[in-house]
Amino acid sequence: MKNKKHKVAIIGCGRLGQQYGMAYSTFPDTEIVAIAEFNPERRKAVGQRFGVNALYPDAESMLKEIVPDIAAVVTPTKWMKESVIACAEAGVKGVSTDKPLAATLSDADEMVEACESRGVIFAGGNLARTHNHVQEAAQWLKQGKFGKIKGAVIANMGERISGGGVQSISAIRLFMNGDVKEVICWGNPAETIDTNDDLMGSSGIFIMDNGITVPFYEGNIVASTNPRTDLNTGQINQQKMGIDVWTDDSLLRWFWDDVKIFKGFDETGKRKKLDIKFTDWKWKEYGYLTSTMRSLINAIETGSELAISGHDLRQALEVAIAMKLSAQLGNVPVTLPLSDRSHTMIPADGRWLGKDLTGMPQTYEEALGLTE
Ligand SMILES: NC(=O)c1ccc[n+]([C@@H]2O[C@H](COP(=O)([O-])OP(=O)(O)OC[C@H]3O[C@@H](n4cnc5c(N)ncnc54)[C@H](O)[C@@H]3O)[C@@H](O)[C@H]2O)c1
């Protein structure tokens, strides 16, 4: 298996699909054998950019001729379901998608079921929880290295709750090693509450299935110890989403950059920062997308756990929907899973329909990788 190249197809090769393309053409054990891209000009550009001749407008026409080992579905969300299910039916070994994976819960269920029932590995996408440091720190928490988890808090849930919000929800599920079983949420401003889209400033609580209550906030919390500085600029970034998780004597702090861990207290009672060495990892240039993609490859080769799965994305979408529902009903506690699978939350236009249909098309030169 070590020398065998996994045959990869990219379905939807816009801005994010091209990031997948760059990473899959860098890894020594993968080769891109086909691209399905709806936009004819961009199809030509990405074919040239990644040296691929097998070019198709969509998954269906591609799968008639080529069934890859791995399919990366990076279309706008509206077309993810048909592409993921077509790949599962055609017999790929693994298929990945991105967030949000669907608007309607029953669509997300069908995607998960289509893969599960055929033994196809269904991976999530470019989610920050797959960052190697986050994965490693979450393993340490799971192993009880810092003692029993006592609490957690989420800052900056993000105003798009099936977009940025899904990032926080996915990460807290990882750190807590479990699911959200109840949600109470307040929305802001008022005019965002009764809509069917994912726009809503959100504050409230998640009650996790391990019994811990996790508050979440629309805006920032003030992290008094070592505030969330941007590692590159040294500036405090007020917009960053962040999660703190604590035990009796330790605190794990993650504000999208490296995880910081504090253990014990100094003579004034302040937390003491540990000088933690995380395991080094290859292909850092693609950020946490690397970990997502490598975890899918590992899962295909060894059956190991995914850093983010399609199931995880479905669970996160369901929590986001429950948040809006709670706010709409008058801050009512909503228990999960939701029995009504017709609940729908439409993501931002650029995610739902893609950038071409929403006035932000990528130029030919950008698709060739010549300009940003
Ligand atoms: N996880 C993250 O951080 C993150 C970041 C960016 C985008 N995304 C998600 O990735 C998806 C794509 O986003 P993007 O920024 O690359 O959008 P984009 O509009 O730049 O690219 C989408 C591409 O898919 C193509 N396409 C549309 N329908 C298709 C179909 N049926 N078959 C094949 N190709 C099709 C379009 O022509 C376009 O080139 C969205 O769902 C978005 O939410 C996630």
Keywords:
single chain; 372 residues; alpha/beta; Rossmann fold; Dihydrodipicolinate Reductase, domain 2; 2 domains; six-stranded parallel sheet; five-stranded antiparallel sheet; 15 strands; globular; binds nicotinamide-adenine-dinucleotide
Q: So, the CATH homologous superfamily of the largest domain?
A: NAD(P)-binding Rossmann-like Domain
Integer count of domains: 2
Strand percentage lies at 15-25%
Broad shape: globular
Q: What topology, given as strand order, has the largest sheet?
A: 3-2-1-4-5-6
- Unreliable residue stretches: none
Number of helices: 11
| Rg for CA atoms | 21 Å
Characterize this entry briefly.
With 372 residues, the chain is of the alpha/beta class. Helices cover 32% and strands 19% of the residues.
Can you tell me about this structure?
The protein is α/β, with parallel strands linked by helices and 372 residues long. It has 2 domains: 6-127 and 284-309, NAD(P)-binding Rossmann-like Domain (Rossmann fold, 3-Layer(aba) Sandwich), CATH 3.40.50; 130-273, Dihydrodipicolinate Reductase, domain 2, CATH 3.30.360. It has 11 helices and 15 strands. The strands form 3 sheets. Strands 3-2-1-4-5-6 form a 6-stranded parallel sheet, with helices on both faces. Strands 7-11-12-13-14 form a 5-stranded antiparallel sheet, covered by helices on one side. A 4-stranded antiparallel sheet has the order 10-9-8-15. The radius of gyration is 21 Å and the shape is globular. The mean pLDDT is 93. It binds nicotinamide-adenine-dinucleotide. Residues 11-17, 36-39, 42, 58, 74-77, 79, 98-99, 125-127, 351, 354-356, 362 line the site of nicotinamide-adenine-dinucleotide.
